[in-house]
Specification:
The termini are far apart. Helix content is 78%, strand content 0%. It has one domain: Growth Hormone, Chain: A. The longest helix has 34 residues, at 394-427. α8 (152-183) packs antiparallel against α12 and α13 (301-325) crosses α15. By secondary structure, it is mostly helical. The protein is built from 17 helices and no strands. It is globular. It is found in: Cell membrane. InterPro entries: Efflux_drug-R_Bcr/CmlA, MFS, MFS_dom, MFS_trans_sf. Residues 36-421 form the Major facilitator superfamily (MFS) profile domain. Keywords: Cell membrane, Membrane, Transmembrane, Transmembrane helix, Transport.
Length: 428
């Protein structure tokens, strides 16, 4: 078995692949290589980079196009992520992981250049949508590749490591975006995103082997995926973790959409200082993801998930209190957001691993539906922000709190349903 399907004239290809992957990429590998984590983390960072690098420029873009609803470009981006993931999941199960990655990465590069050249808000929105369609391939296939190679707690640990790599994006991206705005136009941000897409395209083409061989690929036509999605949505074992994960993600996406207008527009923070604030919250996400990897050695994914969700609901209620009363001012809002955002490093890896665990042969399909549900919820939550014209942190706080409370409630309901079903099976 060759490590990557390079053309013959790439004489150093095997050596390059071995550098990144080690000696084997067989399913259920015992230890993931650093190269694997780096490549998958870069691909999964399409989403975070495309939002976080761009975030400090939102007020500038709104002023240039004389459109106060510039944050709606975020909602459109999340919608594109949702639709793209529904497409790439079945494609990756049928064609393998590499080919969809190459096509999606190419589309991401071209759409990023389109954003850089957009002369109006409608065209910017259009290219942002295409950018999301391309970038969503990284979010789907990385989870599917993890499921190809790892199982159970090890899969959750690998996702935690990916969160560490991805966590560097929200720390560095707003800082870089703010510095770009000091010296260049906001369009330079999208040029940088196009260059990042080219880097990922090269990594996929040269260093990423195929982890989903033809013998394991589905032979059903693509249109049959609709029926597969419907059947998956009827399975309690999937919904028990996918719906809470989506609602928690919706609260997180609300923060992404509102953070820049709140801290820059309401509290008067400069774009450069906003990068530091946003980076601190992202640092909390990195810490919690690594804490999760340690906790998984002694605790089950389910127990960690319950505790993290409870903690985040408490933080969200504190955020509402701080935003409504002004308690603690900007510091009070930031402190509550630190927990609300950081807790995702405990929630997301465990919820995703538990949702995908029963579906080894449909990893791409389950991954795409899991991501699409989260992105759709994020797009809806981001759109709800537009219904609140007041310039304050309260709308953001309320939406986050409602999302987190609903997530915890749904999780409890589904656990009762699953327990009841198990008891009925034992009795029968």
């Amino acid at each position: 078995m060759t490590l990557c399907p390079l053309r013959p004239w790439y004489t150093q290809g095997q050596r390059f692949c071995a550098l990144f992957w080690g000696n084997s990429v067989e399913p259920a590998s015992k230890t993931p290589s650093l190269g694997l984590i780096f490549i998958l983390g870069a691909l999964a960072a399409y989403g975070p980079l495309s939002t976080d690098l761009y975030m400090p420029a939102l007020p500038t873009i709104a002023q240039e196009f004389q459109n106060p609803q510039a944050h709606q470009t975020m909602a459109v981006y999340f919608l594109g992520l949702s639709l793209g993931q529904l497409l790439y999941g079945p494609l990756s199960d049928r064609l393998g992981r590499r080919r969809p990655l190459l096509v999606g990465s190419g589309l991401f590069v071209l759409a990023s250049l389109g954003c850089a050249l957009a002369p109006s808000m409608p065209l910017l929105v259009f290219f942002r949508f295409l950018q999301a369609l391309g970038g969503s391939v990284g979010m789907v296939t990385t989870l599917a590749i993890v499921r190809d190679l790892f199982r159970g707690r090890q899969a959750a640990q690998v996702i935690s490591y990916l969160t560490l790599v991805m966590g560097a994006a929200p720390i560095l991206a707003p800082l870089v975006g703010g510095q770009i705005l000091l010296y260049l136009d906001w369009r330079a941000i999208f040029v940088l995103l196009a260059l990042f897409g080219l880097l990922c395209l090269g990594l996929v083409g040269l260093a990423l082997p195929e982890t989903h061989p033809p013998a394991r690929r589905t032979q059903s036509p693509l249109w049959a995926a609709l029926g597969d999605y419907i059947r998956l949505l009827r399975e309690r074992a999937f919904l028990a973790y996918a719906l809470p994960n989506s609602l928690m993600g919706a609260g997180f996406f609300t923060y992404l959409s509102a953070a820049s207008p709140v801290f820059i527009g309401v509290y008067g923070v400069s774009p450069q200082h906003f990068g530091f604030i946003f980076g601190l919250n992202a640092f909390g996400l990195i810490l919690s993801s690594q804490l999760n990897a340690l906790l998984l050695k002694r605790r089950s994914s389910r127990r960690i998930l319950v505790g993290a969700m409870g903690l985040m609901v408490g933080a969200a209620l504190g955020l509402v209190l701080a935003a409504a009363t002004g308690l603690g001012g900007m510091l009070g809002v930031w402190a509550a957001l630190f927990v609300c955002v950081g807790g995702m490093g405990l929630v997301r890896p465990n919820a995703q691993a538990l949702a995908m665990e029963p579906y080894p042969e449909r990893a791409g399909l389950a991954s795409s539906l899991l991501g699409a549900l989260g992105s759709s919820a994020g797009a809806l939550a981001g759109s709800l922000l537009g219904l609140f014209p007041e310039a304050s942190a309260l709308p953001m706080a309320l939406i986050i709190a409602v999302c987190y409370i609903l997530a915890l409630g749904l999780f409890g309901v589904f656990q009762l349903l699953l327990r009841t079903s198990s008891q009925n099976l034992l009795r029968s």
